[in-house]
Amino acid sequence: MKNIKLNNGLEMPQLGLGVWKADNGQEAINAIHWALDAGYRHIDTASIYKNEEAVGEALKTTKVPREDIWLTTKIWNEDIRKGRTTAALDEALARLQTDYVDLLLVHWPVDGYVAAWKEFEQALEAGKVRAIGVSNFMEEHLEDLLEHATVKPAVNQIEYHPYLVQADAISLCDMHDIAITAWSPLMQGNFKDEPLFGEIAKTYGKSPAQVILRWCLQNDIIVIPKSTNEGRIHENGDIFDFELSEEHMVAIDELERGHRFGPDPLD
Ligand code: NAD
C-alpha cells in the first residue's frame, strides 16, 4: 500500500474502498472486511450513502485496529445549506461508532460552504476529524474558499478517470498542495466499452480495471474504486506490483474528452 502525504503532514492511503450504493447491512460489512483482508486501509463513505451504520459495524468487527484505517465521510448538501454541519458530523460519528473520522469533506459546493468550513475548522480543533477537505470544488469554489479559510483543504475529491481529468481544477489544487481523490475512477463500470484498456492490460498480464487504477496512481491520484464483489475487491487492490510505461500512460491520457458520468458541479 502506498500513501500520499497531505499538506497537513498526514499520510493518506492511496487506495480506498468506495461504498456508494452498498447496502447498509451485510453487503457493506462484507465488502469492507474483504477489502481490509486484502490490504486496503481506507474506506470512503458519506452521510448521503445511508450506510454509515454498516461502515461503523464493519470497523468495529474487523481485527484491523481503528487507528490503522483511514475513514472518510462527507457532510451532505441539506446540512450545509441549513448551517447544521457540527450537528450532522456528531450524528455521523454516532452512526460510525467512532470518536473521529480521518477526513471530513464538504460533499458539494452548495450555498453555505464557507460557513460550513468554519465548523470544519472547529471540528479539527476539537479532534473530531484529523483532516478536512472538499469534494466537487471547481476553480471558482476553491478560490472563494481559500480567501476565507484559515486551514487549507487537504483534499479535493472530484470525478476523475481517463475520459475526464479536470486539468484546470487539478493544477489549482497542485498550486496549493491539495491532494486529489478520484471518484468514479472506473467510470462507473463503463470502462468496458473502451478497447484500449484491454489491449494495454494484456501486455502486463493485468485486467482493464487494474490498468485504469494504476494510471491514476502513477498520476499521484488517490483512488476509491467501488465494488461489493470479493473477487473484484481483490483485483482492484492488486495494483502495486506493476508499472505502466510512459507510452501507455500517454495513450490513456489521450482518451480525455471532458465526459462526465456524474453531475457537473457548475450546474
Ligand atoms: P466506480 O468508477 O468505482 O465504478 C464502480 C462500478 O464499476 C461497480 O459498481 C462495478 O459495476 C464496476 N467494477 C468495479 N470493479 C470492477 C472490476 N474490477 N471489474 C469490472 N467492473 C468493476 O464508481 P463509483 O462507485 O461511482 O465511484 C467510486 C466511489 O467514489 C464511490 O463508491 C464513492 O465512495 C465515491 N464517489 C464520490 C462522489 C462525490 O460526489 N464525492 C460521487 C460518486 C462517487
Automatic annotation (TrEMBL):
SUPFAM superfamilies the UniProt entry points to: NAD(P)-linked oxidoreductase
InterPro entries named in the record: AKR, Aldo/ket_reductase_CS, NAD(P)_OxRdtase_dom_sf, NADP_OxRdtase_dom
Family statement drawn from the similarity comment of this UniProt entry: Belongs to the aldo/keto reductase family.
Protein name: Aldo/keto reductase
GO MF annotations, alphabetized: oxidoreductase activity, acting on the CH-OH group of donors, NAD or NADP as acceptor
Ligand binding (substrate): H107
Active site: Y49
Gene3D superfamilies: NADP-dependent oxidoreductase domain
